Amino acid sequence: MKYDFITIGGATEDMMIFTDEGILFDNKKDILRQKLLAFEYGAKIIADKLCAIPS
Q1: DSSP single-letter state for residue 4
Q2: DSSP secondary-structure letter at 28?
Q3: In the chain, where are the structural domains located?
Q4: Which residues make beta-bridge pairs with 31?
Q5: Rg, C-alpha atoms of the chain
Q6: How far is it, in rounded angstroms, from Cα 31 to Cα 42?
Q7: CB-based contact 53:13 (threshold 8 Å)
Q8: Which of 6, 39, 42, 50 is most buried, with most CB under 10 Å away?
Q9: What pLDDT is recorded for position 11?
Q10: Which pLDDT score is estimated for 5?
Q11: pLDDT by residue (tens digit) across 2-55?
Q12: Given the DSSP bridges, would you call strands 23-26 and 35-38 parallel, antiparallel or unpaired?
């Protein structure tokens, strides 16, 4: 499964970040977290598109 975007949000605003730079991992040992989306720690991620939306 490929995700087209990720969101980061708070109580007043959500951010949608569109990028192809994430890696999806299967995590079969943890039933609550079966798939993990990862980015390199400390890396600069290039966003194809960024949207800020009031929540």
Answers
A1: S
A2: T
A3: 6-54
A4: none
A5: 13
A6: 28
A7: yes
A8: 6
A9: 76
A10: 60
A11: 666 666 667 788 888 888 888 999 999 999 999 998 999 999 988 888 888 887
A12: antiparallel
Contacts by 9-13 with C-beta closer than 8 Å and gap 24+? 9/55, 10/55, 11/55, 12/54, 12/55, 13/52, 13/53, 13/54, 13/55
**What letter represents residue 8's amino acid?**
I
- Find the distance separating the first CA and the last CA of the chain, reported in whole Å: 27
pLDDT of residue 32: 92
| DSSP string for 5-51 | -EEEE-SSEEEEEE-S--EEEE-TT-TT--EEEE--TTPPPPPSEEE
CA-to-CA distance for 7 and 27, rounded, in angstroms?
A: 21
Q: Which two tokens stand for residue 50?
A: 């960024």
